[in-house]
Amino acid sequence: MKKKIFLTIGCIIVVLFAAGAGYVWHVLNSVKSAAGDMYETEGGNGNHAAVTDKKPINLLLLGVDERKGDRGRSDTIIGMTLNPNTKTMQMISIPRDTRTEMVGRGTMDKINAAYAYGGVKMAQDSVQNFTGDIPFDFYIKINMEGMSDLVDAVGGVTVNNKLDWHDEGYYQKGYHYARGNITLDTGAKAMGYVRMRHLDPQGDFGRNQRQRDVIMAIVNKMASVSSISRFTNILDALGSNVKTNLTYDDMKNIALNYRDAREHTIDYEVKGQSQKINGIYYLVVGSAEKQRVHDMISEQLGN
């Protein structure tokens, strides 16, 4: 069975960024009722003081496909740094095949396997180790179905497509993704767009770029939403698909103090060399690239 590819984003963060001043409190009250279901501390309690003090924060975004009896893997891994002082949001995508240490297990494997072995805790520890021991203040884990529902909730998104192809992947809906600006008017069509890999000359790298393009399209679409009912639909779309150690108070503070962070965006994909080790293909990332990623995050955190 073809392995599914997942799009992830900090949906809660996006909801709060997009809330207009005229009805932000309505949105927050709606979030409060849903926050209890979303809240968990599998990856730690979170650095709530950083949000209270309006400091730059570092979040781990995990896109997973959990089924009954199967935890699945985190096939999408993004480190997101929000700096309210420089009004910057940085997203660093780590390819799922990246070879790294499974912290707590003592073995080397693909980075997406850490979640399968040890859940959010091992995934977070392994990504933190990979980036040079820069801690994550919070994590947001979202199941794939939440992404499809979210695109439906915002009424579709528009992206600039670099390739021309017809869907032949998981959904097999026969969608035509034309080159240029296209509208992904349903969640199913959006997921087909971000899943495609084999028809892209850049493989995983091209797919990851499409994921990040859709992330920003969602952010921009939500920033222009003026209907309270839209936000209600968005919160309904999150539901049980999202788990995070952000509390309601954290969300409220982010809504009020970090909204301008999307004014400047930095989008980066970790680079490496494909190598076959013991019969398995990995993306091997050199020490210079790891240092570059470490420095990028440190700079945004003001370290």
TrEMBL record:
Record's Pfam families? LytR_cpsA_psr (PF03816)
The cross-references to InterPro entries, in alphabetical order and at most eight, read: LytR/CpsA/Psr_CW_biosynth, LytR_CpsA_psr
Q: Where is the Cell envelope-related transcriptional attenuator domain?
A: 73-223
The record's NCBIfam families line, in alphabetical order, gives:
lytR_cpsA_psr
Q: Which family does it belong to?
A: Belongs to the LytR/CpsA/Psr (LCP) family.
Full protein name:
LCP family protein
Question: Which species is listed as the source?
Answer: Sporolactobacillus sp. Y61
